[in-house]
Write a structure and sequence with these properties.
Shape: globular
Radius of gyration: 15 Å
Oligomer: single chain
CATH topology: Nuclear Transport Factor 2, Chain: A
Strand content: 35-45%
Number of helices: 4
Largest sheet: 6 strands, mixed
Order of helices and strands: HHEEHEEEEH
Number of domains: 1
CATH architecture: Roll
Length: about 140
């Protein structure tokens, strides 16, 4: 495998460990391009500020002890596909559900496109229905 592919996989792993898991905002600034685009399942597109806000104002307050387990990673050209799990204690509001102190696991598959070592595009499918069931017990 090419060194560029391995480097891209390492960048995605670093983003997950140092920004998402450890909350290091400097890593976000370093690894996310100014023209970053995030695509959600409804066809909406958001930018860098919205991605930062989601993690720092919504996700990390809801799961302050989140850990990220990367199960598989595949790289092709400038794209990295990752199958991972977020696991954390539900301490703050998430999906409209106040903190429950329950342990929650969220399965995620994502595609990240990189340019010059920075995230430029992102797509993800996360099992939010499963997370909701874990939080509410229904």
């Amino acid at each position: 495998m090419s060194s560029a592919r391995e480097s891209n996989k390492a960048i995605v792993e670093r983003f997950n460990k140092e920004f998402i898991e450890q909350g290091n905002s400097a890593v976000f600034d370093e690894l996310v391009a100014p023209d970053f685009r995030n695509y959600d399942g409804d066809g909406d597109v958001s930018g860098r500020d919205a991605a930062r806000a989601f993690f720092t104002q919504v996700f990390l307050p809801a799961f302050p002890d989140v850990s990220v387990t990367i199960h598989d990673q595949f790289a092709d050209g400038d794209a990295v596909i990752t199958r991972k799990t977020y696991q954390g204690t539900h301490k703050g509001e998430f999906l409209g559900v106040p903190g429950t102190s329950k342990s929650v696991r969220i399965a995620v598959i994502e595609i990240v496109k990189l340019r010059e070592g920075k995230y430029v595009e992102h797509w993800a499918a996360a099992d939010l229905l499963g997370a909701l069931h874990q939080m509410t017990g229904s």
